[in-house]
Structure formats: structure tokens, C-alpha cells
UniProtKB/TrEMBL annotation:
Residues 408-427 are annotated as: Disordered. Keywords: Carbohydrate metabolism, Cell wall biogenesis/degradation, Isomerase, Magnesium, Metal-binding, Phosphoprotein. GO terms for biological process: carbohydrate metabolic process; cell wall organization; UDP-N-acetylglucosamine biosynthetic process. Residues 1151-1221 form the Alpha-D-phosphohexomutase C-terminal domain. SUPFAM superfamilies: Phosphoglucomutase, C-terminal domain, Phosphoglucomutase, first 3 domains. Residues 62-104, 127-181 form the Alpha-D-phosphohexomutase alpha/beta/alpha domain. This is phosphoacetylglucosamine mutase. Catalyzes the conversion of GlcNAc-6-P into GlcNAc-1-P during the synthesis of uridine diphosphate/UDP-GlcNAc, which is a biosynthetic precursor of chitin and also supplies the amino sugars for N-linked oligosaccharides of glycoproteins. InterPro entries: A-D-PHexomutase_a/b/a-I (IPR005844), A-D-PHexomutase_a/b/a-I/II/III (IPR016055), A-D-PHexomutase_C (IPR005843), A-D-PHexomutase_C_sf (IPR036900), A-D-PHexomutase_CS (IPR016066), AMG1_III (IPR049022).
Length: 1239
């Protein structure tokens, strides 16, 4: 149901309120920073009123509820502030921070006009009913400021929910719950308490304490609004954790207490009950920051800040993911201010990045900000040319885009499998050239290296004869090079296949697919039935014989005249396609043009049925006429620069067929066929906008506009505008393929252009969706690129149901792509993607489904069924290759084997060269049990590590746990039985199993099985321990990537969203953990999956119970505290054990008061200072004096101070380092007040 429209806004009322009740009381500029507006409370009335107005507009833009929180967090009581909360409970989008600053600072008379400008700029539908949620902290100024915001909301006719006094995380929570219709939780403060408390109790269970962990914690509530929340949690969780609270609201807010005070001063807060080794916590004024600390027996203060929390959480989650064996990407996000000790621990223990395929989380935004990119890698985020000089801000761009709006079903086979040789599956024919050239290159390099190693100096021939002697390696190298089947080709992928061998045309109102199949060229009509399945019309198809498979197929229709071009290495063939009767198709070859040099691209003239063009490896272009059977125009493209190889691509312009586009690795050249091919009429060089290591690899024109085209490179896809050759690249997407894209296609539906790119690697396909408003203007991309599922994923889905288990099938589906195309079914408008592999199997899938598809949807069930039938045909076609499966027998004699081992006639001749040492055969594989008992098994620690077992265990029954069986197997031995050596050895019965090894296409058959086989007495082995007698650590299976972003929780939050599970905490204790919805579903499914082991289910269940303890909306000190308590309890740690997990470098954070904090600007994620001039050089000079020294400076986001961070190896030096850098900031950045001094 559509919400009822809002009443029109009375702007005269807005103007009256702005000029009278809420007049501007401050002439200076008030800036909306990372934490919103923060300044003195007595000048904020007009700001709150205007933010009430703006929040309504923001709600109408997002068509969702928006939050407005009145708080100044850790600032003094006299300050206050306001910040807006976006629909997902996140910070306000960066672009709207500028809008908020602009509205807050205009004159009273300009408020209405500014609102109207914002409405026009943002294209806001003001009839949409806005929803605003307001909360405030406990400051005395918060209530009147809240009333000003309420008046602003009501003046804009917004719907209002005022929750009164709440913590900042509680407001974020309510906003998120409201916009998810309660899916995230009940959108009330009571719902917040109930959700977190219930989840914490479930996770704790019945055991309150564990080992060193004692379920008791002291909380410093900073005399802020968080005290109310602590008291409520204390009441609800009293049976599982003992919470003691001080600074509970009876004192001055944030005065000598709170997380920020403890972190900066590194001393306990006022009123703290200093008991040794008692776990203590400080939160800030609005309860979104947290730090831990304790005092030891010597009354020494120990701080456990946000870095410690981040490492603790990431390490625990990593451990749970390993135990549950879930394929989820865990990521950790930090700032430059993270302690160097934590960074070292991460790099050594967590941060070996696990390789991931697909288009997520490959490059960091800091890398891209230094390059000419228009997006974050893996995402479709663009910016126009006129804004290229704007500051690159990944988080500000991320909210402009949504998920891909369509869904794809699983690929399914279109054709029956062709009969192929088994070697075709084992060795991919499309990669044969690459593999052979690599082998030749390796052989040549090997001989050259051998020569360099053993070469001798050759004397000059004094006789000056007409012949000379060459080293043997020269002749050998020449022989190897003569084996090169294609000396002109070079590269890391087979670019002969550019364009692909799969194509189609709309001919006589029918969709015709054209492709090679079993050494034949096929033209096959296909139609669509009601369940998105293609129905091939084999009866009316046509075929012609091919001597070899082509590298490219091009199709075209002109006035219902269909043509097909096939490009082979040394010839091009053109066929006419026509109807013999009303339906039956016929193919007729009308031209064939051989070539001594290799053809590398060809195209049909889209307007002239008699012409086509080709280009060869020597850069020559030829236009052919099929009626004259010869070329009518030719020329050679000049070489103007060095090229990596000889790749090129040729294409007729669809809108002006006199133009031929020639694409090489650097540029796109436009040649006019009406004049000699000597120099291009136009050249566009997208290479100038690419990276040094990028090169072009594919090209296609837009099907919507004559001015635009797409060019692919090994790193990205670019949109080109031919009207502006000097700045031709106007949009850019990074595809993240491992190989260069060879196949590019476009299709159009509902004003949207589907751009398909694919490489030879199976599964490397991406779809980019562009929305066109005009053929004159460039399209807009509102969604991230989409990677549709591959046929391997169809196979994996079948495997999950116990079907399609033949290894032959998996090998066949893993072959390289040789073609890819998209097509739109004319009657239904459905969009389909078709791919072809190197043995001519074709798979298709719908990529334009509006509804969400799961594994059990009708389309996917049809795909699984078709694959099952297809597998049956594959096995039937290869039945002549099937051999006997592996057979295990109970034969116990190895006399034949021993006879061959002891046969003197088979003795190596090498022994005859040493008659003084006659050969005495003593089989090395045969040893007594007593001797075997003395052996040391150096692999035993690795075998035992997965079960965390060290000691050997006695024999266990068959029904024992798996790890006990393995240990028993390792430890069993028959002390009485020994194998003797001597002349009668061959008669000694030896228990072995004779195996006949064959290709494993079918199941393994066992002739006889018995439980007694586990009672075999095997030799005992001893475990070798590592140095110091400790067990070797198990190699980590999960690797945690670590990203560094600028300071500000918004930046960390947006970066964390790129991972399945993202962990982020600033050093000041502000942070949380975010889970993707898909990750939550995977975890909770695994927790209840009976097919998993008990250990896996337990770990998944632990993760599942933790999820609801976490408030995932930007940061919540109290939910973070409960999460830390859960982890410490699970590990049995107290704060001392936690601190010992790794060593922090001594550090210090100092605030320096300055006249204008904007005098400090930074770069490289705030690690380098840009202005004022000379400050960074001074900092570098100071830091160089201290071992392991680091220091960064940045302007505060909430007050006119510069924050100085310093760390080094010695605690006595860190104070000096921080003071010296502070002095430099004071002197060069306009410090005010007392100048810092060096202690």
C-alpha cells in the first residue's frame, strides 16, 4: 500500500520561524563534521531548527525514516550538537554533510530559498510523507534544542517520533529497526534491551565464570545518558554478570571521566574504586565509545583500548570460522592511529589475505585514489569528468548505488554433449597454444641458464676460416624454437578467440544461434517456452562441415539477408543463410579468403551484404567483396609506439558503415573506407586514462547511441565518447578478472543497456547495467556490477543434492570459455546469457528475473534436472573410454613383487662398474617391527594438530570418535610379530593389498570389508616435538585482510561493509562488527545443519548467538562491552591474560589547541600532513630519533584542536616524542594557549 501524500509545505511559516523564533545567533561558520555539528549549546538553536527541516527532505529522498540525535558525546557539558542518522542506522551520507553545512550557515532570509534549491538539486518528491525519529542526551540544553528540531520537522509536515532521552546507539538501532519493518528488531528502546539481553543470556548459558574469567565488571558511565542504559542492563543481566556502576549521572558530564578522558590521559577516571586486577570499563557521554583498563598489584594503570578490542574480536571470530569451516570473508578495518603493536600482531598472525574470486574486496580505495579510477574496485561507482578533481571519497560514493536489480538463474546446457576424446577434457584445446609456447620458453631459458652456468671463453679464430664452431646449446635452442607453431604470437592468454565463436541473429522473425559443434558449423533456431527454457529446433537447423574450429563467428542481417563469417587462423569464410522452405534453414558458402599471415579479427558490413573486412597479425586491413572474390581496399596501420603483442580488433561502425574502427592495445582508430587506409580520421586513446600496466583487449559499440562505445582492458571497462577525443573515457568500471576480457556484448531492455564482459576463465563474467535517458547524454549506473552464477555453480548445487558426481563432468565444465553473448527474447523481453566452452558445450541462463530465486525455484530446479540428464549423455558418449574401477582385494602374498625386486637379471648395469663391491639386495621397504618402533614420525604433529591431541592413546573400539581411531591407528603395533630377513623371506606371509590402478570415473568397489581391518597391528610411531617441547601451531586456514582508512567511524563502517563479517574499532573505542545478511543466513543455517559435525555446529551456533548481542549500527559501547565479556569468558581470560596476547607499543595521544583546526590537512589515510608547509618534514625529523617511532597529526572533527598521536619502543621516550611533535604543531599550525613542553 502506498503511503498517503504529505500536505504541501507552508513556506511562509518556515520563513517566519526562521526569522523570528529561531534566528541565527552566530555569524561564524558551523561545520557538519564526521560526528555532526558540535559547538557551544547557546548558538545551536537555529541549527537544530534547520536540521529539523533538512531531516524531512532527507527522509523524502531516501523514502525511509531518518534519525536526528542531539548530543555532543564526550564534549563538556556546555557544548552540544546534532547529527542525522541514515536509514540503515549509519552516519549521514558525506554529500549531504555539505548540504547540511550550507543550510546551517545561510542567512535567515535565505532559508526557504536554500530549501527550494536543495529540493530541485536532489529532485526531491516533497509529496512523500517523511518520517523523523528524534532522541537526545541528558544535557540541560538538549531539551530546548530538541524542541527547536521538532518545530522544524512539523513546519515541513513531517511525521515525528520523539523517543526522548536515549543513547546515541539506541537511536541508531530504532532507525534501523523501523526501516527494516522490525526484521532487525523491535523499534523501541525496550526492544533494544530485550534483544541484546536475551542474546547475551543465551550465549552465556548456565556458566557465569570460566577459569580466570570472573563475571564481574565495573563501569564508568561518564555521568552521561549511558548511565541509564547501564542501570537497565544491570537489572536485566543480574543473574549472568555482576555490573557495578559509578559516575552514574550524579556528577559533571565527562569531567575527569569517560572513555575519551581515560584514553588520552591514560589514568583511571575520578571516583574509580581502584581494586587490583578488577576489570573496569569507561564509556563516553552518549555511550558509543568504550575502553577497558585495570590496575595491577603495584597500582600501575593498564589500558586496553579499541585496538585491543578489535584484535580480540577478530581473532575470536577467525577461530570460530575455522572451527565451523564456513567460507566467509572476515575483514578488519583500522586507521593510521592503530597501535604499531597491533599492526605487527595482525601482519604476523591474521593478515595473510585469502584469495577470493569474483568482484568484491580486491583493491583498497587508497590505491584507487592515487590512480585515474572512477570507482572502488569491485563496485560500479562512477563520477563525471567535470568532477574528476573532487576529493576521492569512497564512502560518499557508496550510497549512490544499489544492488543489481535483477536476478539470475543457474546455467543449464542447451545442446546434447558432443562426443569428444578424453584428452580434450584433460588438456584444454583453447589453451594448447599457450601451454606449448610456455613449454618452449621454459626449455629455451633452461638451456640458456645452463650455458651461462657452464660456459667457457671462446678464442678468436686466428685462421680466419669461413666456418666456426658453435656451442651445442645454440643448436639445441634453435631446434626448440623451430618447434614453435606460431612464432608471431605472444601473450599470456589466447587472444585469437577475441569476439568468440558463439553468435546469433534475428532472421525471419526467429532467433538463430550460430556456433561450431563436432567439426561442423551449426545454425540453430531456438524458441522460449513458459519456464525460461530454450527449445532448440534441430529439425529445421542447418550445418556445414568445418576442417577445424574457428576462432571467431560474426553474424549479420541486411534486409532479411543473413550472413555468417567464420575466422580461422589462415582463412576467412562467408556463408549465406536462407530458408529452403518456410522453416528449414540452409547454409551456403559464398566466399573463402586464405592468408599467409594469421587473421586476428574480422567483421561483416552491417549495411552491405557483399562486403566484410579483416585484419591480420601484421596490422593490415582489407575490405573484401564477395561478388568479386577479392579485396577491394587494403592498407597497413602504421606502428606509432611499442605494443606488448600483435593483438588487434576490427569493427564496422553500426551507424556509419563507411567507418571501420581498428583497436590495438593502446588506441581506437577510425578509418574511412572511402579513402585509402593510410592514416586514421580519428584516434581515441583510452590508454592515457588507464594505468601503465593496462592494455586494451576487447571492444563493442553501444546499442543505444552512435557516440558511445565500450572498450575492455585487463583491469577495467571504459565508456568512450567519440565527440571528445581529448578526454574520451567518461566512465570506468573495474572488472577484477584474473584474465583479460575477450568477449563483450550489449543488449537493450526497458531503457537499460546490459553490458556483458567475459574472459576465457570459466566463471569470469560480469554484467554492468546502464540507464539511458537520452542518446545524447552518457548513461547512468545506479547498481553495482553483477557476476552471474557459472555452470560450475550449477554443478555444486547438484552435488549438494548428491547428483552429478562424475569427475569427468567437473573437468568438462571447467574448460575455458570460447564464446559469450547476450540476447533478448522478443515476445517476452527476457534477457539471456549464453556461454560456450572449448569443446563447444553451450550453457544459457536468464539474467533479468525480477523475483528473487533460490535453489528450489522452478528455474533452478529445471537447471539441475537438465544437468542430470546431460551428465547421463556425457557418460554414455564416453563409455568406450571407461575402464575398470579401482578394486581392493584381500590378497596377502607379495611374492610376485618380491621376485621382481630380487631378480638379478634386472640389476642395473651401474653396479657392474664396481666389482669390488658386489651388490647385496636388501629391500629398503622391508623392516622389522622392532626397527620401525625406533622411527620418528616428523609429520605426527601435523596429523594430531586438527584434533588438538598430543599424547598417544591405547586401542579404542570401532565405535570411538574419529580422532581416537586415528590416534589408535598411529599407536598400534604387534610386538610379537617381526618380519625376518634371509633366504626364506619370500615365503613369509606379508599382509598387503594389491591394487589395480585405473582412471577413476566410477565408484570404488571393495570385494570384502570387515571391521577387523581396524585391528591390524601397525608399527608404533613417535611424535617429534618442536624446539622447547611445544606442539607446532596448526597452519591457519582463514586469513584476515586488514584495510586502513581515514579516521572517522563512517569511513571504517563503510569499508567494513565490503566483507562478509567486518570488524572495526578506532583506538578511542568507537566501533562495532557488521554482518552481511547472506553471512547471517549461512551461519544460522550451519548452526542447525545436522549433516555437519558437532564441533562445526557448535562453532556456528556460538557465532549465531553472538550476532544478536551486537548492535551493528556504527557503534554501541554497551553491546561492545557485552561482546568482549562473552569472548573473555569463552577463552577463560582475565584482563591480564588478554593484555598478554600481544604487546602494544607505548603510545601517547595529545590535544593541541589551535586557532583554526582546518589549517591542518592530511593525506594517505591521515598518515601524512600536507599543510601547513614544513610540518610533516619536522615530524619526520623528530620521529627518526626514536626506535620504532611513529607520529601522526590530524584536526579534530568536533573541536578546534589538533590531535597528536605518538608511539615508540620505550615508554620513557614516548612522552618526549609526543611533546616534541606537539611543539611543532603549536609553532607551525597556529597554536593558542600554553605551549607544550618536553618533560
Amino acid at each position: 500500500m502506498q503511503p498517503s501524500a504529505a500536505n504541501p509545505v507552508d513556506y511562509s511559516l518556515v520563513e517566519s520561524l526562521a526569522k523570528n523564533q529561531h534566528r541565527k545567533a552566530y555569524d561564524g561558520v558551523i561545520q557538519y563534521g564526521t560526528a555532526g555539528f558540535r559547538t557551544k549549546a547557546d548558538i545551536l538553536d537555529h541549527v537544530l531548527f534547520r536540521m529539523g527541516l533538512l531531516t524531512v527532505l532527507r527522509s523524502q529522498v531516501k523514502k525511509a525514516a531518518i534519525g536526528l540525535m542531539i548530543t555532543a558525546s564526550h564534549n563538556p557539558e556546555a557544548d552540544n550538537g546534532v547529527k542525522l542518522v541514515d536509514p540503515n542506522g549509519e552516519m549521514l551520507e558525506s554529500s549531504w554533510e555539505t548540504i547540511a553545512t550550507r543550510l546551517a550557515n545561510v542567512q535567515d532570509s535565505q532559508v526557504v530559498s536554500t530549501l527550494q534549491e536543495i529540493i530541485k538539486e536532489q529532485n526531491i518528491d516533497t509529496s512523500y510523507p517523511a518520517s523523523v525519529i528524534i532522541g537526545r542526551d541528558t544535557r540541560s540544553s538538549s531539551l530546548p534544542l530538541s524542541q527547536a528540531a521538532v518545530e522544524g520537522v512539523k513546519a515541513m509536515n513531517g511525521n515525528l517520533k520523539d523517543f526522548g532521552v536515549v543513547t546515541t546507539p539506541q537511536l541508531h538501532y530504532v532507525v534501523h529497526c523501523t526501516n527494516t519493518n522490525g526484521a532487525y528488531g523491535v523499534p523501541t528502546v525496550e526492544g533494544y534491551y530485550e534483544k541484546i539481553s536475551k542474546a547475551f543470556k543465551t550465549a552465556v548459558g548456565d556458566k557465569k565464570d570460566n577459569d580466570k574469567y570472573i563475571g564481574k565488571v565495573q563501569i564508568d558511565a561518564a555521568n552521561g545518558v549511558g548511565a541509564l542504559a547501564v542501570k537497565e542492563f544491570k537489572k536485566q543481566l543480574s543473574d549472568v554478570i555482576d555490573i557495578q556502576i559509578y559516575n552514574d549521572g550524579n556528577g559533571q558530564l565527562n569531567h575527569m571521566c569517560g572513555a575519551d578522558y581515560v584514553k588520552i590521559q591514560q589514568i583511571p577516571p575520578v571516583n574509580a574504586p581502584l581494586k587490583p586486577l578488577v576489570r573496569s570499563v569507561s564509556i563516553d557521554g552518549d555511550a558509543d565509545r568504550i575502553v577497558y583498563y585495570y590496575t595491577d598489584e603495584n597500582n600501575k594503570f593498564h589500558l586496553l583500548d579499541g585496538d585491543r578490542i578489535a584484535i580480540l574480536v577478530a581473532a575470536h571470530f577467525k577461530e570460530l570460522l575455522e572451527k565451523s569451516n564456513l567460507d566467509l570473508q572476515l575483514g578488519l578495518v583500522q586507521t593510521a592511529y592503530a597501535n604499531g603493536g597491533s599492526t605487527a600482531y595482525i601482519s604476523e598472525t591474521l593478515a595473510l589475505i585469502r584469495a577470493k574470486s569474483h568482484v568484491k574486496s580486491k583493491l583498497r580505495s587508497t590505491v584507487l585514489s592515487q590512480c585515474s579510477h572512477h570507482l572502488i574496485a569491485g563496485h560500479n561507482k562512477t563520477r563525471s569528468n567535470q568532477n574528476q578533481n573532487d576529493e576521492f571519497s569512497a564512502p560518499s560514493l557508496s550510497e549512490m548505488f544499489q544492488e543489481f536489480p535483477y536476478n539470475s538463474d543457474l546455467p543449464k546446457p542447451l545442446l546434447p554433449p558432443s562426443r569428444i576424446q578424453r584428452d580434450s577434457v584433460r588438456e584444454d584445446s583453447s589453451m594448447e597454444l599457450i601451454n606449448l609456447k610456455n613449454k618452449i620458453k621454459d626449455d629455451v631459458n633452461r638451456y640458456l641458464e645452463l650455458y651461462k652456468k657452464h660456459c667457457t671463453t671462446l678464442d678468436r679464430d686466428k685462421n680466419k676460416t669461413s666456418h666456426t664452431m658453435l656451442p651445442r646449446y645454440v643448436a639445441t635452442t634453435a631446434e626448440i624454437l623451430e618447434c614453435d607453431p606460431d612464432p608471431e604470437f605472444s601473450g599470456t592468454y589466447n587472444w585469437y578467440y577475441t569476439g568468440g565463436t558463439l553468435n546469433g541473429i534475428l532472421y525471419d522473425t526467429r532467433n538463430i544461434l550460430v556456433f561450431p559443434y563436432a567439426q561442423e558449423l551449426i545454425a540453430l533456431p531456438v524458441s522460449l517456452n513458459d519456464v525460461s527454457l530454450f527449445k532448440p529446433d534441430f529439425k529445421n537447423a542447418s550445418k556445414v562441415a568445418l576442417k577445424r574450429n574457428p576462432f571467431q563467428i560474426v553474424c549479420s542481417t541486411v534486409n532479411n539477408h543473413g550472413r555468417i563469417l567464420t575466422r580461422h587462423k589462415n582463412e576467412c569464410c562467408v556463408y549465406n543463410i536462407f530458408n529452403m522452405d518456410k522453416k528449414k534453414l540452409q547454409l551456403l558458402e559464398i566466399d573463402k579468403q586464405p592468408s599467409e599471415s594469421s587473421y586476428i579479427s574480422a567483421d561483416l558490413d552491417p549495411a552491405n551484404v557483399t562486403r566484410y573486412c579483416t585484419t591480420s597479425i601484421n596490422r593490415s586491413i582489407t575490405i573484401w567483396d564477395t561478388t568479386k572474390f577479392r579485396g577491394i581496399l587494403s592498407g597497413k596501420v602504421p606502428v606509432t609506439r611499442f605494443f606488448e603483442d600483435s593483438w588487434a580488433f576490427i569493427k564496422y561502425d553500426e551507424y556509419n558503415t563507411n567507418i571501420i574502427k581498428y583497436v590495438d592495445r593502446h588506441c581506437v582508430h577510425y578509418y574511412d573506407s572511402r579513402s585509402p587506409i593510410e592514416r586514421p580520421a580519428l584516434t581515441m586513446c583510452p590508454k592515457e586514462s588507464l594505468e601503465d600496466w593496462e592494455y586494451l583487449s576487447s571492444y563493442i559499440g553501444s546499442c543505444k547511441s552512435e557516440y558511445y562505445s565500450y572498450v575492455g582492458s585487463n583491469l577495467s571497462l571504459c565508456l568512450l565518447d567519440s565527440r571528445n577525443p581529448s578526454s574520451t573515457v567518461i566512465k570506468k568500471w573495474t572488472h577484477q578478472f584474473k584474465s583479460s576480457p575477450l568477449f563483450t556484448d550489449v543488449c537493450f531492455r526497458e531503457n537499460k543497456e546490459f553490458v556483458i564482459i567475459a574472459s576465457q576463465i570459466p566463471g569470469e563474467t560480469a554484467i554492468i547495467l546502464n540507464s539511458w535517458n537520452s542518446s545524447e547524454e552518457p548513461p547512468e549506473s545506479y547498481s553495482t556490477p553483477f557476476s552471474p552464477p557459472s555452470c560450475i555453480e550449477t554443478l555444486m548445487a547438484s552435488h549438494s543434492q548428491g547428483k552429478c558426481l562424475s569427475p569427468q563432468l567437473q573437468n568438462r565444465l571447467s574448460l575455458c570459455n570460447t564464446g559469450c553473448m547476450a540476447t533478448v527474447d522478443t515476445p517476452s523481453g527476457d534477457v539471456f546469457l549464453l556461454t560456450q566452452n572449448s569443446v563447444n558445450d553451450i550453457f544459457y541462463q536468464g539474467i533479468g528475473h525480477q523475483e528473487q530465486l533460490d535453489l528450489y525455484s522452478l528455474e533452478n530446479c529445471k537447471a539441475l534436472y537438465k544437468l542430470k540428464i546431460w551428465e547421463r549423455e556425457v557418460l554414455k558418449n564416453s563409455c568406450h573410454d571407461i575402464v575398470s574401477p579401482l578394486v581392493v582385494t584381500q590378497r596377502t602374498s607379495a611374492r610376485d613383487m618380491l621376485r621382481n625386486f630380487t631378480n638379478q637379471k634386472l640389476k642395473s648395469s651401474a653396479y657392474n662398474n664396481e666389482p669390488d663391491e658386489p651388490f647385496n639386495h636388501n629391500p629398503k621397504w622391508k623392516r622389522s617391527v622392532a626397527e620401525l618402533n625406533t622411527y620418528v614420525d616428523i609429520f605426527a604433529p601435523e596429523l594430531l594438530a586438527p584434533w588438538e591431541m598430543l599424547a598417544e592413546t591405547p586401542m579404542v573400539p570401532i565405535t570411538a570418535a574419529p580422532h581416537q581411531k586415528v590416534l589408535s591407528w598411529l599407536g598400534m603395533a604387534e610386538k610379537n610379530q617381526e618380519v625376518t630377513t634371509g633366504p626364506n623371506t619370500s615365503d613369509t606371509p606379508i599382509v598387503v593389498e594389491t591394487q589395480e590402478t585405473h582412471h577413476q570415473d566410477q565408484d570404488v568397489f571393495i570385494t570384502h570389508d570387515s571391521e577387523s581391518i581396524q585391528q591390524l597391528f601397525l608399527p608404533k610411531v613417535k611424535s617429534q616435538t618442536t624446539q622447547g617441547g611445544k606442539k607446532k601451531k596448526k597452519r591457519s586456514q582463514y586469513k584476515v585482510p586488514v584495510a586502513c582508512v581515514p579516521t572517522g567511524v563512517k569511513h571504517l563502517h563503510h569499508k567494513a561493509l565490503e566483507f562478509d563479517i567486518g570488524v572495526y574499532f578506532e583506538a578511542n573505542g568507537h566501533g562495532t562488527i557488521v554482518f552481511k545478511d547472506s553471512a547471517v543466513q549461512i551461519i544460522r543455517t550451519a548452526a542447525d545443519n545436522p549433516s555437519l559435525s558437532e564441533n562445526q555446529r557448535t562453532a556456528a551456533h556460538t557465532l549465531s548467538s553472538i550476532i544478536d548481542v551486537i548492535n551493528q549500527t556504527v557503534g554501541d559501547a554497551l553491546s561492545d562491552m557485552l561482546l568482549v565479556e562473552l569472548i573473555l569468558r569463552a577463552k577463560g581470560w582475565d584482563t591480564v591474560a588478554w593484555e598478554k596476547s600481544y604487546r602494544d607499543l607505548p603510545n601517547r595521544q595529545v590535544k593541541v589547541k589551535v586557532q583554526d583546526r582546518n589549517a591542518i590537512t592530511t593525506t594517505d589515510a591521515e598518515r601524512r600532513c600536507v599543510t601547513p608547509m614544513g610540518l610533516q618534514e619536522k615530524i619526520d625529523e623528530i620521529v627518526a630519533k626514536y626506535p620504532k617511532g611513529r607520529s601522526f597529526v590530524r584536526p579534530s572533527g568536533t573541536e578546534d584542536v589538533v590531535r597528536v598521536y605518538a608511539e615508540c619502543d620505550r615508554i620513557e621516550d614516548v612522552e618526549k616524542l609526543a611533546a616534541q611533535v606537539s611543539i611543532a604543531v603549536f609553532e607551525l599550525a597556529g597554536g593558542i594557549g600554553t605551549k607544550p613542553v618536553v618533560p
